[in-house]
């Protein structure tokens, strides 16, 4: 078991209520609490604030937020949404920290003889993510490292051609063949199981809150999913007193409390075991038929603002990819292949992005969750139900990371996994190249069967991660603790098969 500690400046990944409020602000539908004339910034003005922030006009947005919040007639839900927009600006400035000279200096660490015109060319091509905020051009803190993922020309200029730290399962791997062959031989979609013991922890910085104040932590915990992850057994926690969210929680956690001590870090941890299966569905495209909408499938077919919206640009992209195809399997495959061509890059924090699927469509790159939301949106637009899964991935070695993927409903096969971020395995045998279109490996733990859902118990303040739940969340009576105030850790050990016995 090897600990791997992470405190990324951006994501490698407010509750749903805040997301819906932001969507309402954008649509101009949030009402004021009283009948008298609205203050200068009514519903349309609130939507304009979101647009101002997206355009980098922070000072103007802050002035309008302050003006609106000063009015005691403001509805509580509108007040909360505006306060989050203020917080969103703060978070953007944590992600976008580099001047042009600083960004160049980081690129020069790998290209010592970098020329200014080279940098300018890559910048103009959109390969170095930046924003102009109140007249200052600021680069995303991971833009210099992302450049080498996005540009073959930049990669070729590196002084040292070191490989990227990717999952070993993003290329052809014996595990893919094992899952595929066992599933085909058995006629079942679940195969190649193994047991794992996991310890996850959150460590809050010393003096992040006053001594004696109670810190509240939510640590991610797996959901029991038949044929995917079973026999979940809670082993221990620090502190010992804990509250496990029910199976019905779509973003499942273990809740812990602990008082802060002066000058000391505060650590929360949980240990558990479970059995994990790889999955593979052998599907005949000619047998796949359009789904008949049902109450159970309806939530997975429509828009879900702010991150699943059928925009004009989304419809145009879909038409160009799908063409005249009518078969749902082949439509899904075309969309999967199109999104798979979007290169991976380390992402800014999701809470700072107004519409993630739209962002992935236009940015020219995306991480696992961004391209998953894009694919989910496109599938739904074409009458194919889609839904979210996410958690942690690991390996037999030292690799682990946050990861997001999805599921799609293809009749008559039902819900099948799809991981467009891992995508096509070009170096695999033909029968395994599309493994992740209907299959997933057994080296991942799902904490989430949806995104942006309430915790049990509920969090009082804005979440650090408004979409996903992989690192955890922390707060105290004074507010949320953001990612720059604590760190997380994920340790694992593969156990002999069947070691996990009792289901929690």
UniProtKB/TrEMBL annotation:
Q: Does the keyword Signal apply?
A: yes
Could you tell me which species this protein originates from? Luteimonas galliterrae
Residue intervals of the Transglutaminase-like domain: 360-422
Keyword Signal attributed? yes
Highest taxon of source: Bacteria
Show which residues constitute the signal peptide. 1-33
Q: Which UniProt keywords apply?
A: Signal
Q: Which InterPro entries match?
A: Papain-like_cys_pep_sf, Transglutaminase-like
Name this polypeptide is given: Transglutaminase-like domain-containing protein
């Amino acid at each position: 078991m090897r600990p791997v500690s992470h405190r990324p400046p951006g994501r490698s990944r407010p509750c749903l209520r805040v997301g819906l409020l932001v969507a309402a602000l954008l649509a101009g539908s949030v009402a004021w609490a009283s009948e008298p004339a609205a203050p200068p910034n009514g519903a349309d003005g609130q939507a304009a604030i979101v647009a101002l922030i997206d355009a980098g006009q922070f000072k103007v947005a802050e002035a309008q937020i302050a003006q609106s919040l000063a009015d005691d007639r403001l509805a509580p839900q509108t007040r909360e949404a505006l306060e989050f927009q203020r917080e969103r600006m703060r978070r953007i400035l944590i992600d976008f920290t580099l001047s042009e000279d600083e960004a160049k200096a980081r690129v020069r660490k790998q290209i010592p003889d970098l020329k200014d015109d080279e940098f300018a060319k890559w910048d103009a091509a959109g390969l170095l993510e930046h924003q102009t905020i109140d007249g200052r051009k600021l680069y995303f803190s991971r833009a210099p490292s992302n450049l080498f993922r996005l540009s073959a020309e930049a990669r070729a200029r590196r002084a040292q051609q070191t490989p990227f730290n990717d999952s070993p399962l993003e290329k052809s791997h014996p595990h893919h063949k094992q899952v595929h062959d066992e599933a085909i031989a058995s006629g079942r979609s679940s195969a190649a199981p193994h047991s794992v013991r996991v310890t996850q922890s959150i460590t809050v910085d010393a003096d992040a809150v006053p001594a004696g104040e109670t810190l509240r932590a939510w640590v991610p915990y797996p959901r029991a999913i038949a044929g995917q992850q079973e026999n979940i057994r809670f082993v221990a926690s620090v502190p010992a007193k804990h509250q496990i969210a029910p199976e019905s929680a779509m973003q499942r956690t273990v809740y812990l409390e602990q008082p802060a001590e002066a000058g000391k870090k505060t650590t929360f941890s949980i240990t558990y075991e479970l059995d994990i299966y790889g999955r593979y569905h052998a599907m005949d495209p000619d047998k796949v038929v359009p789904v008949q909408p049902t109450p159970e499938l309806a939530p997975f077919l429509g828009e879900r603002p702010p991150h699943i919206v059928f925009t004009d640009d989304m419809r145009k992209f879909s038409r160009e990819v799908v063409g005249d195809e009518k078969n749902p399997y082949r439509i899904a495959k075309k969309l999967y292949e199109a999104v798979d061509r979007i290169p991976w890059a380390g992402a800014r924090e999701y809470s700072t992005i107004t519409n993630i699927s739209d962002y992935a469509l236009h940015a020219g790159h995306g991480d696992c969750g961004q391209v998953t939301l894009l694919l989910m949106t496109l599938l739904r637009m074409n009458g194919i139900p889609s839904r979210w899964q996410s958690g942690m991935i690991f390996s037999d070695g030292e690799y682990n990371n946050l990861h997001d993927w999805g599921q799609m409903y293809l009749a008559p096969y039902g819900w099948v996994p799809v991981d467009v971020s891992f995508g096509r395995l070009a170096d695999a045998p033909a029968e395994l190249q599309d493994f992740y279109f209907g299959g997933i490996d057994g080296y991942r733990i799902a904490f989430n069967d949806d995104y942006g859902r309430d915790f049990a118990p509920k969090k009082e303040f804005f979440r650090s991660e408004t979409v996903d739940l992989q690192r955890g969340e922390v707060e105290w009576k004074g507010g949320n603790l953001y990612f720059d105030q604590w760190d997380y850790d994920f340790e694992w050990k593969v156990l002999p098969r069947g070691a996990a016995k009792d289901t929690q």
